[in-house]
L-xylulose reductase-like isoform X3
Amino acid sequence: MEVRFDGKRALVTGAGKGIGRDTAKALVKCGAEVFALSRTQEDLDSLVQEYPGIQPVQCDLGDPEATKAAVESVGPIDLLVNNAGIIILQPFLDVTLDAFDKVMNTNVRAVLQVSQIVAKGMVERGTGGSIVNLSSLVSKSVLKEHTSYCASKGALDVMSKVMALELGPHKIRVNTVNPTVVLTDMTRKIGYGDPAKAGPILARIPLGKLVEVDDVVNAILYLLSDKAAMVNGTHLPIEGGFLTS
Ligand code: NDP
């Protein structure tokens, strides 16, 4: 299945590292004009060095005013990938309000804000579009110490459905991808590089291997593309059969 995005303008948030970075590169390879938004300037510099066609947008999505200015500056967007996300692990009884707010602000509020700006433009132009939000399998199958993160991804799933419902009449499709553990900076920082920590997840995956970044990127490309023209408001698990066990 070949997908092409020639003539389309794409915005990927959290494109400095991990899944977002590889999504930005894949979109360029498929012909899109890509805007890569992320927090750390050095990540954007190295991305542009690798792919000079990518347009970097430095922004901390935790700052609503900076977010508004940055997203408005990129102009019309046809394809939006809300990928930026953070995780803070704390046992439920020790969850701090500060950590909860930080996770919810990045993983949910920023998606709301970025999508509103982008989707208003899509509605005004009447050209439609496609939005993919990076959720997680933890919205379906929770993990200990993931209270804030699970709450954020559960909220993101439901918000995405409302977006699909309200934006569908404007030819804007909204879907989520919901992967289980993928080894990236995010998951390595919380110990998943250690087979002892990843083992219980792996044991529940009938295909016998962890999800890789490319597996997620391919699903994002599919949902962004016209191949998914009638897929709207769905949550696509990427988990090798984890939920069957
Ligand atoms: P990484 O931590 O590897 O990369 C996340 C990227 O998002 C970084 O470039 C980071 O920039 C950026 N980012 C985070 N917060 C902000 C912010 N406030 N403003 C701007 N940019 C920001 O994460 P992954 O690639 O692993 O995860 C990507 C998405 O996929 C997330 O939404 C995550 O929840 C989801 N996901 C990941 C899974 C996994 O196992 N890895 C599984 C399921 C879902 P910086 O480093 O500069 O802060």
Q: What stands out?
A: The chain has one domain: 9-244. The radius of gyration is 17 Å.
